[in-house]
Write a structure and sequence with these properties.
The structure is a single chain. By secondary structure, the protein is α/β, with parallel strands linked by helices. It folds into 2 domains: 115 residues, no CATH class; 247 residues, Metal-dependent hydrolases (TIM Barrel, Alpha-Beta Barrel), CATH 3.20.20. The protein has 22 helices and 10 strands. The strands form 2 sheets. It has an 8-stranded parallel β-sheet, sandwiched between helices. The chain has a two-stranded antiparallel sheet with strand order 1-10. Helix 10 links the parallel strand 5 and strand 6. The longest helix is centred in the first third of the chain and has 21 residues. The radius of gyration is 21 Å and the shape is globular.
Length: 504
Amino acid sequence: MSTWLDRKAKARTALAAKAAFESPIPTQVVSNGEYEPPPQTRRQRQVEEVLSARADEGARRLGLDRRGFLRSSLGMAAAFLAMNRVYGPLFRVGEAEAADFDACTERSNGLRRQFVFDLQTHLLHDDFQNPHMPPTRAVGHKWCSSVPIGAAFDLYKFENYLQEVFLDSDTDIALLSGAPSDTPGGEALRSQLIAKARDLINRHAGSKRLFSHAMISPGRPGWLDEVDEAIAEYKPDSWKGYTVGDPLNRSPEWPWRLDDETLVYPFYERALKAGITTVCIHKGLIPSRFREEAPQIWSHADVSDVAKAARDWPDLNFVIYHAGMQANFPDTDAALAAFEATGEIPWVTHLARIPQDHGVSNVYAEIGTSFGSCVITHPRLAAAMLGTLIKGMGEDRVLWGTDAVFYGSPQWQIEALRRLEIPADLQAGHGFAPLGETPDSPVKNKIFGLNAARLYGLEPAAALRPFDDDAAARIRAEHHASGGMRSNKAYGFVHSAKGGQALD
């Protein structure tokens, strides 16, 4: 596996679990190691300062310590109040929610039946070794106490995944994914292990809480044999591929295109014959400098190959992860400036236009990582991204994902979408429809899970919620009843304060 951060980059970073302010909402961009995290912006620092003052006051008033306040539902509301103070009123949140537990409980109870299906989650296999990973933390909860994996786990590994996704967030169902590697054995999680994790969690939960990907690596020797093996042995719910090849390699051996008739179309035939018809593809999230520095990666990271593949294979569904957003997170300033100047978001707008321009209805946008990092850096850009996708693709083809567990519990991302509204000037100037006045508006409910339910054949489950009575639901209820709260930890890397000044 290639090095995640070079020596100079590592000197400018620190472990988020130790260095980041433990806010309910991250106050600086956290990197999973695939890119160098940018410095904290001045506005992010202002959010941190406003929230710190609110936390001190709230903790004194309620007889809590500061950390306890920030980990509570009141702390989450206070964080969005701080965001509104700095960025303007983009989030629907009232002062009562940051002061009254009853108000928070009433709101939470009202959202108890909102269906949340996270289409992008990750964990690392137990033998995965990387010297740049954060230290381990023992978790230990009884629903996985029989798993003979070891006494302590990396924060990215199995037990903490259960903690953050299924106990400390409102996620009902998740899809476990992976990433390829040019180095044999260097994959984050191989298809076989994804299937084993799926089966283990579902067996303990007593219902299908976890769905699974099987990875595809077109061009790698024997890759179609691996597809056949996955179909026969692992029974994946959908497929996952990276057209850039190994995402951690500046010179990947096997980049590919979705519309390569010779290389990739034989896979589509197999997928269609097997009835596994959803193909999820990593796109975007690439530094602008790669246009010159790594043109091979750049040319395979964009969405120019989506339309032909979708048109040629109308019975397959193509889910484009990260909504194809070009901007790597240090470049979100440029992405916001581009949108304000042109009304376009590089590659997101291109993706959103594909259905209308090419007459297809089988292309979807998943918003993992792009939404999460934009909403804490430029929430106006996050709103513009959603407006662009909904306007171009329709509200039925935008899908929820968070990239957990790399960024800790996904609950803050869930709350961000529940509370976000597209500003009135963007609605008027760009023809964007509102997201809705309530956290469970029809549009938000579709994004959170109803669209994915239709894609994965879960519409009855989304409506009837049979999982509300499974073992996972009982353990979550016990966890909350016993006072369990989110850790507010982020597990990747943040820019070190010693590495440079805050961005504007």
